[in-house]
Amino acid sequence: MNRINKSYRNINVIDKSEVANLKWPSENFYKTQDKIDEILVKLKVALVLGNTEKIKCKIYFRDFVSIKMIETTIWSVCEKNILIKSGMWIPIRRIVEIEI
Predict the structure, then answer these.
(1) How many CA atoms lie within 13 A of 52 on its CB side?
(2) What is the pLDDT of residues 6-35, one digit of tens each?
(3) Is 44:52 a contact under the CB 8 Å cutoff?
(4) Cβ proximity of 58 and 11 under 8 Å
(5) How far apart are CA 96 and CA 4, in angstroms?
(6) Cα(55)–Cα(1) distance, integer angstroms
């Protein structure tokens, strides 16, 4: 899959347990439906690979502060959020990229 755009600076690698403490802006990171659809396809592929092959993916997302990255297995993809370990959610609207 595609690598994250090299123009993004200061990507903070965090532990997935830190996701529970983040605050999320209400607007979408991407404005075009094509990019949102691309993210959804990657999320579904990552979900299947995680559940069948135990493959982790890198999830890049933006909260109020900066772009962050975690490496984890996606447990569920819902309409507005993804579920990761320990019942933590990340809003799909804030996902920058998925790297499988």
Answers:
(1) 6
(2) 556 689 999 999 999 999 999 999 889 999
(3) no
(4) no
(5) 8
(6) 14
**Pure H helices in the chain:** 33-53
Q: Which pLDDT score, from 0 to 100, does residue 1 have?
A: 41
- Rounded to whole angstroms, how far apart are CA atoms 74 and 58? 10
pLDDT for position 2: 47
Instruction: Specify the pairing of strand 12-13 against strand 88-91.
Output: unpaired
Q: What is the pLDDT of residues 41-84, one digit of tens each?
A: 999 999 999 999 999 999 999 999 999 999 999 999 999 999 99
DSSP assignment of 33-48 = HHHHHHHHHHHHHHHH
**Contact between 65 and 80 (Cβ < 8 Å):** no
41 CB-near residues (< 8 Å, 6+ apart) = none
Question: Strand 76-77 relative to strand 81-84: parallel, antiparallel, unpaired?
Answer: antiparallel
Does the predicted TM-score (pTM) go above 0.85? yes
Burial class (CB in 10 A: 0-12, 13-18, 19+), 42: buried
